[in-house]
Each structure stands twice: as C-alpha cells, then as structure tokens.
Specification:
290 residues; alpha/beta; 4-stranded antiparallel beta sheet; 10 helices; 21% strand; Rossmann fold
C-alpha cells in the first residue's frame, strides 16, 4: 500500500491559486531518499513513499509551501507508526533534546511574557507543545498552563495535554505560543484564525519557525531539515510569517529583552542586538498582539 496525499491548490497565506513551482522530485530519488532512509523511524515511511512526487511551490505573495500533503489518515500513521515514541526519543537524543540552550531559550520567553502581561496568574496555551518543556517552565514561574498536541507519543510524555484545538471550548488565554509548529500545519491560516478567538485583548502570540529564506530545493541536510516534505510542509521567512499573522488579525509588537546567562559577553551581545534592532535583519521568531 502506498501513502496517499492531498493536493493544495491555493496559497496557505492569502488563498491565491496563482502558484509557481520552485522545485520537485520523487520521494525515492536523490538526496531526499537518502535523508529519509537515514532518519530514525518507528516503522520506516520509505516503502510507502516509493514513486510518490513532492513539489515545493511559491505564491505571488511570497509564501512557499509543499503542494502535496499526507491525507488525514496517512498523517495519523505518520504521527503514530512512523514517528513512534522510540523514534522521537532517538531524534531528540541526537538533535532535538532539551539541552541547556533550549531551556534558556524558553526561560527568556517566559520572562518576556511576564514583562508584557500585567495579569496574574498568566494563562498560557502552548499549541503543539511537544513533550511539554515550555509548559513545565511556565508552571514553575506560576503561570496557568494548557497544552495541545496531536502526537500521542509526545502527549503521553507531556502530562495532561489536549489532543486538538476543539477541546479548548471557550477558554481564553493571555498568551499563546507556537514553537516550531506553523511549518507543520496543513491549514496554518485556519489555525491562527481559531487561536485568535482564544487570545484575550492585549494578549501575546509567539510564533517561531525555521527560517527558510533562500531554501528552494532539497539537496543538503540544512535544506532537508528546513522543508522536510512530510513534516515541514510550509516554508516561512520573516516576511511571510508577519504576513500570515497580520492577515488574520494580529499586530506585530517588539519583544522585550531578557538575559538568562552568567556571561557578560552574552549580555553585551544581546544588548547590542537590542540597540541595533531596527537595522538588523528580522527573524522567524516574532511576537504579536490583538
């Protein structure tokens, strides 16, 4: 049996059907096949993808994304059988573990939310919360935390986490975070529009994705990680991230600076970036409000 895909014919940001192909190929050919074969999996997806095409496209608005995405049935297989608990553990051990830098990164966000939001306790929703690392830190700072994650393997490790956005009911939050999530969503605009209903006026939305600026094909490990056609189905740049958020009712805000280090050199570098903020290149880590 071969994996089945749906075809996205309209832009994920603006809805336009005026798309042009950036690159394409087959899952069982070239560097993509080699990278897929080398990755840790529970049940390998490679046999199910033989002969299947992939295509990376761009809209006139600048947004890039994969044209073909797994059907809901096959995406469930992706998140349960292919990305098994053992496979996720191996991936996190080698490349994605919550090491010191990741923990410090999350603490910075926590301090920045504390600075921007007057309410106490701060209610935080982490959408796509993974293993719950950010929620755990927020809880230690006295925040009220809620998580949503579709992966059973990750959800079981994160504690009490909801399986879907529909389970939120009428709950509202002072902050909603999506750390490396937007690139995985088949309909990111719909998710952002729904999440906006759960964000209180003046609340903060944090978006963070890989920066796909300049990535057009899959020939290197960096390019594979950036636009993995099974996982990273949307490719965001600083400009397209801001565009999709603003199109769905969010306004960009400057994030405050926080220091989580004992190194004076790192403090100086952070302060320099703060002072030069208006002239430095933007990133795909951005803050918004409503």
């Amino acid at each position: 049996m071969k994996a089945q895909f749906n075809t996205r014919t309209a832009c994920i940001t603006c809805g336009s059907a005026n798309l042009k192909q950036v690159s394409d190929g087959l899952f069982d050919q070239g560097p993509l096949h080699a990278f897929l074969s080398a990755d840790p999996w529970g049940e390998s997806p490679v046999p199910f993808l033989a002969g299947k095409p992939w295509a990376y496209v761009q809209c006139d608005c600048g947004q890039r994304f994969h044209k073909y995405v797994l059907t809901p049935e096959w995406n469930d297989i992706n998140f349960s059988r292919w990305m098994s608990p053992e496979a996720i553990a191996e991936f996190e051990r080698t490349r994605g573990a919550m090491k010191f830098e990741r923990a410090a990164h999350f603490v910075k966000h926590t301090l920045q939310l504390e600075s921007l939001i007057d309410a106490r306790p701060i209610r935080v929703l982490d959408f796509g919360c993974g293993n719950g690392e950010f929620l755990t830190l927020c809880h230690q700072f006295g925040f009220e935390t809620t998580g949503v994650d579709r992966s059973t393997a990750r959800r079981d490790k994160a504690g009490h986490v909801l399986a879907s956005i529909d389970e939120l009911g009428d709950r509202t939050f002072h902050a909603i975070t999506l750390f490396e999530v937007l690139e995985h969503l088949e309909e990111p605009a719909t998710v952002l529009a729904t999440l906006r209903k759960h964000l209180l006026p003046g609340g903060i939305l944090i978006l963070e994705t890989p920066d796909c600026t300049g990535v057009e094909r899959i020939e290197s490990r960096h390019e594979y990680d950036a636009i993995h056609p099974l996982q990273h189905i949307n490719g965001f740049t600083p400009e397209t991230m801001r565009s999709i958020a603003e199109r769905h009712g969010f306004k960009a805000v400057s994030k405050p600076v926080s220091h989580v280090t004992a190194s004076p050199v790192k403090v100086a570098k952070t302060e320099a970036r703060r002072l030069l903020g208006k002239v430095l290149k933007p990133t795909t880590q951005q803050y918004f409000t409503v």
